[in-house]
Amino acid sequence: xxxxxxxxxxxxxxxxxxxxxxxxxxxxxxxxxxxxxxxxxxxxxxxxxxxxxxxxxxxxxxxxxxxxxxxxxxxxxxxxxxxxxxxxxxxxxxxxxxxxxxxxxxxxxxxxxxxxxxxxxxxxxxxxxxxxxxxxxxxxxxxxxxxxxxxxxxxxxxxxxxxxxxxxxxxxxxxxxxxxxxxxxxxxxxxxxxxxxxxxxxxxxxxxxxxxxxxxxxxxxxxxxxxxxxxx
Length: 232
Fold this sequence. Notes:
Layout: E1 7-11, H1 16-30, E2 35-39, H2 51-65, E3 69-72, H3 84-97, E4 101-105, H4 112-127, E5 144-148, E6 161-164, H5 169-176, H6 180-183, H7 194-208, E7 214-218
Parallel strand pairs: 1-2, 1-4, 2-3, 4-5
Antiparallel strand pairs: 5-7, 6-7
């Protein structure tokens, strides 16, 4: 398919993909890749949001990211499960969009939706390749899953690699600022704000590779390099 995605970032809620992989998305788009985001839920209810507010915020973030596609699987917030029905729904999306690579949430967290979403992506990736099924579209198997960190636990997991996002980090923070109902309204206004904390985490991971800002990623399978010319 000429319009197949190169990368599909999957998150439990609108803003998860931007927190953990916003820099990667912006970097990939600047390099000409076709990138999409699939939110599994609308993220509501939350203390200061509503479905309408979250849609407006997501639309604004999507425009800044210049995504090639964004969708919502329509699963219930706070009740995401890696059940057969959800697996089938996600597998159909994968068969339709045919992404080469998936970015999914890290599998350990305090938020049950994040844990379930990670397991769901793993299972749906396998189901998407099945033949002799009534699922529409041709079978498809994304070649790799890369896990990003958008977690509530204060984990310090050793990543498989850290991506230098220094050149796009200011744009990432502008994207995150679109989600005012989640990151700004009702939160402390004195530094460090929630957005300051995200920025500081990215600055720390950048420091680990000698860069201004970085995003950590983890793979269960080995990560291969075609050459050593672009190591940070």
